[in-house]
Write a structure and sequence with these properties.
Blueprint (H helix, E strand, L loop, with lengths): L2 H29 L4 H8 L3 H13 L3 E6 L8 E6 L4 E8 L3 E8 L4 E8 L5 H18 L6 E9 L2 E3 L4 E4 L10 H9 L2 E6 H12 L8 E6 L3 E7 L2 E2 L36 H13 L13 H9 L3 H25 L3 E6 L5 H15 L2 H4 L4 E3 L8 H12 L2 H6 L3
Parallel strand pairs: 3-6, 6-9, 10-13, 13-14
Antiparallel strand pairs: 1-2, 3-4, 4-5, 7-8, 10-11, 11-12
Helix pairs in contact: 1-2, 1-3, 2-3, 6-12, 7-9, 8-9, 9-10
């Protein structure tokens, strides 16, 4: 047998080990307490394989046994659950001028969270700031930290998650920025990177409003408008690594110029700053409202809309209408089981959601819109939970799990 064939065979065996380990861990994580017999039945793996994998997981402290009364009476049965307290991950959400860092255990519980300013505007300076910020955060939380198994970063822009390279960011010039490699080398730990909204959609699927479905679309309105599409419980990505730029669907051909260079993109209408500017413009025109030029940020606008203020209600309804047009296009393309809306504007959900829904009712295929809930996100869209979702995924698909098992 040639050397190449041997290498290929070893690679295949390693991949099978990784996938089998992932299947067992995922069943325990999602259905625990679960018995070894149930794991073998559900996974269709041989009982001997399940015993071997669970022994490895037990020895590494990734799972633990719990006793409970067997349903048949008789002696107490042994089941298995995941152990989440001994392993920690750091999640980082890099914003335009700040970074939110959070310490998570493996259940997704936030043990500490802090926001740091990132005033720098060059690739090198931002990287230095991120690394020193992580060091500071680790020092501060040294007593809480058991074993740091991964650091994950999410950010706006165009990211190649497989290569770990940032291709574009909206506020700083980047040149194929290998941030993952540099963080990995500095802290000697696994590192993952992803787009902030796509990762938020995955977090919603693991911990939030779409736990009960496999296919969903999340749309988040903040500084711009972004979307994440989940298909079969995975972020929909392609060879280029980026898709779902719903904010750049042209919704108003005669509209304002977008930072991308085009005119009338959705995010020139559906972003916090665009909504605030619209209200300010209307106030200057003399439209009656309880809002004033000194008090018309997005929170005040949503609050006013909730109390029936005519100006605030009309502006939110109009944004809902434009959002609804773009979301209807996405529904016709992807046929999701649920649509999730995130962002500060959801504080006015009683006005916003009906406006979105009325567009869906007239613009989406009937079969696609039946039994299609449009709901508000259950997660804090400005937190680092999306970064944790990337680490969680690496445990569930076996990439990080196999590393922890010494594979």
């Amino acid at each position: 047998m040639s050397n190449e064939s041997v290498q290929k065979q070893i690679g295949n065996i390693d991949l099978v080990k990784q996938l089998n380990g992932a299947v067992v861990y995922r069943l325990i994580d999602q259905h625990g307490p679960i018995s070894r017999i149930q794991i073998a039945e559900e996974s269709q793996l041989a009982p001997a394989s399940v015993t071997k994998i669970t022994r490895q997981l037990l020895e590494r402290g990734l799972i633990k046994e719990v006793e409970h009364q067997a349903s048949t009476g008789g002696r107490r049965a042994i089941s298995i659950i995941t152990e989440s307290r001994h392993f920690h991950t750091i999640g980082i959400r890099l914003g335009r001028h700040d970074a939110t860092l959070a310490l998570f255990d493996m259940s997704g519980k936030t043990l500490a969270e802090e926001r740091y300013p990132v005033p720098e505007n060059t690739q090198q300076d931002v990287e230095k700031r991120i690394i020193s910020t992580i060091e500071n955060f680790i020092d501060k939380n040294q007593r809480r930290l058991r074993e740091l198994i991964a650091i994950s970063v999410i950010l706006p822009g165009l990211v190649d998650p497989d290569e770990g390279v940032i291709r574009y960011m909206p506020h700083i010039k980047v040149d194929n920025w290998p941030l993952v490699k540099n963080i990995k080398d500095h802290f000697n730990t696994f590192c993952f990177i992803g787009h902030d909204i796509r990762s938020l959609a995955l977090a919603e699927n693991y911990f939030g409003a779409t736990r009960d479905c496999e296919d969903s679309i999340l749309v988040r309105i903040h500084r711009g408008t972004g979307a994440g599409v989940i298909v079969n419980n995975n972020i929909l990505l392609n060879k280029r690594g980026n898709m779902g730029e719903i904010g750049h669907i042209q919704i108003e051909p005669l509209g304002e110029r977008c930072h991308c260079g085009n005119f009338g993109c959705l995010e020139t209408i559906a972003s916090n700053s665009a909504i605030e500017a619209r209200v300010q413009h209307q106030l200057r025109q003399g439209f009656p409202s309880q809002l004033t030029l000194n008090n018309c940020n997005i929170h005040a606008i949503c609050l006013a809309a909730n109390t029936g203020d005519p100006l605030a209600t009309e502006v939110i309804r109009q944004v809902g209408h434009y959002l609804g047009k773009a979301i209807s296009i996405a529904i016709n393309l992807f046929n999701p089981q649920k649509v999730v809306i995130a962002g500060e504007i959801t504080e006015a959900e009683q006005v916003l959601l009906p406006a979105i829904q009325s567009c869906i009712n007239t613009q989406v295929l009937q079969a696609f819109r039946e039994d299609l809930p449009v709901v508000v996100s259950e997660l804090n869209h400005c937190s680092a939970i999306g970064a944790f979702a990337l680490t969680k995924r690496a445990m569930l698909n076996g990439v990080l799990l196999q590393h922890l098992l010494g594979g």
